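Duplicate of #3305? Posting structure anyway:
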């Protein structure tokens, strides 16, 4: 089953498989299945073509994949241009939502870089 150019995994439960699409999480996947009146425990390969079409129609009503990525990146670009606090945090590649940075924040900051004095100790004789 393909939706918006993304292949939905055949062997996973539908409520999990729909999360392969960018912009669909667990709660949105469950609400889509509820609207389509399909059980979440079904697999993608067990669906009839009518069920696939109803899911496809509901999913296409949301802003997903490329459009959503474009909107998010334009929002971040706008924050950077107006030089607000959140924009400067994005520019410096630091956490935006108030998390501490003395420890943790490794996802954004990258691998730990140990700082030293800059010179090696001489061997004592």
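Output from current build:
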């Amino acid at each position: 089953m393909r939706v918006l150019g993304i292949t939905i995994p055949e062997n996973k439960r539908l409520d999990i498989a729909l999360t392969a699409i960018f912009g669909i999480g667990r709660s949105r996947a469950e609400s889509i299945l509820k609207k389509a009146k399909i059980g979440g425990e079904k697999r993608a390969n067990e669906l009839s073509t009518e069920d696939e079409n109803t899911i496809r129609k509901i999913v296409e009503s949301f802003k997903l994949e490329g459009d959503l990525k474009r909107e998010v990146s334009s929002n971040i670009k706008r924050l950077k241009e107006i030089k607000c606090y959140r924009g400067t945090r994005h520019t410096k590649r630091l956490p935006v939502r108030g998390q501490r940075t003395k420890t943790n924040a490794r996802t954004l900051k990258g691998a730990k870089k140990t700082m030293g004095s800059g010179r090696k100790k001489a061997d004592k004789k």
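Confirmed duplicate; merging threads. DSSP finds six helices and two strands in the chain. The two ends are 74 Å apart (CA to CA).
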